[in-house]
Amino acid sequence: MISSNTADSDTDETFEALHADALKYRKDDDVHVTDGEYGMKMVMISLHVATMEPSAKWLKSELEKRGVSVWMCTTALQAGDNYRNEIVEAVKSSRVVLPMINKNWSKSGECEAEFQLAIRTNLISHDTGATAHTITVDGADGKPYPISGIRRPAFLPLKFPDIEWRENPGVEQLSCLTNFVVCNDVTLLEDASGATKADILQQIIHGLRNLGIKVNRLHGDAAFIHMAKRTVSNVRNPVELAKQVIAGIQVQLQNTQDLFTLVSSKASSSFAGANLRPFALTDLKKRYLGYCTNLRNGCEVLWSLEFHIDPATLPADDDRLIIPITGSMTASIMKVTDEAHTQESKASLAIFSNHKAKSHSAIAQLKGRFNRERGLAILDAFQKQDEYGIIRICKYRIILEQDPNNSAENGKYATGLFHPIPDDKDHYIHDDDEWTAVIRLIATA
């Protein structure tokens, strides 16, 4: 392993707890995929060999320079190996699976098998004790506190431009459930200047750290951002509960792991023991409330989001799984902070603060469909009522939670994700804004 050339100035207590938990994963199992120091690989790269091997080898080399152990089939498998068994062991023992998703990957039976095995291993990791629902952080003040654990293997997908989001069911699931690292070139090595692949590498490095993987920064690597304190609470007040998850939203890659397995388990109806069933139309509640944060022109803005949803009226005996829905989303600014301290951010702070003081809200009209089998509401905004230009048109995804032991609780809690759609007229939006945000939603009606 290569040591770091750049030391972090102080300790990130949340990361240290996540990293220690990652090291425990399957530590005592009889696995055969080893890397000496940890006993198992940190990352498995899933790839279509004919189109992605050079890119994968470059990525593997860069990660290994930073102390991250990586498994990929073309370098790990030797003549005479039972490659299927080796791949199964690699999937089950890696802390993170990094699929390099292009059109050929989506059509490959081998890649599909790897992906489905990773989903199922992730799904049952808490139940089998391979991972913990909660882990304990040793607080700097000497007081320990719990945070949510990460199901493993976790996912850090890298998407290439020759495949559409809805072209493959697995890709569509991931697009609803976790942040993608998106490459605009057909491979990582197409960019002659090297700027694109350097940016992609930094995103991957930071994504791995958010999943508890230790990365030794080299000179030129961006500094790590400390993880927010993400405590587990029994608070039931919807507003207070929603506020508590804002800190977790800032580390989206980690927080979406449970959500990923939730939806993927519904898509895998043949999975034994899942004890899942289609949602009732009444499980999709009429009103959901949530909070989220994002960066706008150098300002961190805290939003209150309220969704109103109206399913189509259907006959009592209509059992279709895809239901048309309409609705609206109302956004209000709750708090705004100047993070950049530039002339532009100061101007934006004044604009947003003025809207907050006057309690201005913006409304987006929504239409889409509710997939009862997966508990997934897919909503596209087609119109906005926003006199002051504080929101932009977005695509929304709302994934309901299901309680197999108490159907009355189905749909009470949900998680949302939105993708802003570029709008040249919305001059408050810049290219470096967050392209997705995760929202914890609570039904209030």
How is the CATH topology of the largest domain named?
Rossmann fold
| Radius of gyration (Å) | 22 Å
Coarse morphology: globular
CATH class of the largest domain: Alpha Beta
Indicate the multimeric state: single chain
Q: Identify low-pLDDT runs.
A: 1-9, 30-39, 230-236, 241-276, 424-435
The number of helical elements comes to 13
Q: List the helices and strands in order.
A: HEHEHHEHHEEEEHEHHHHHEEEHEEEEE
CATH architecture descriptor name of the largest domain: 3-Layer(aba) Sandwich
Supply the helix-strand structural class. Answer: alpha/beta
CATH superfamily of the largest domain, please?
A: Toll/interleukin-1 receptor homology (TIR) domain
Total E-strand runs: 16
Protein name: TIR domain-containing protein
Organism: Physocladia obscura
Pfam families: TIR_2
Chain-wise SSE layout:
Blueprint: H1 13-24, E1 43-46, H2 49-65, E2 70-71, H3 73-76, H4 83-93, E3 96-101, H5 103-107, H6 109-124, E4 134-138, E5 144-148, E6 154-155, E7 158-159, H7 169-177, E8 181-182, H8 195-210, H9 238-244, H10 246-249, H11 252-255, H12 257-267, E9 287-296, E10 299-311, E11 322-338, H13 343-357, E12 361-371, E13 376-385, E14 394-400, E15 413-420, E16 437-443
Helix pairs in contact: 4-6, 6-12, 7-12
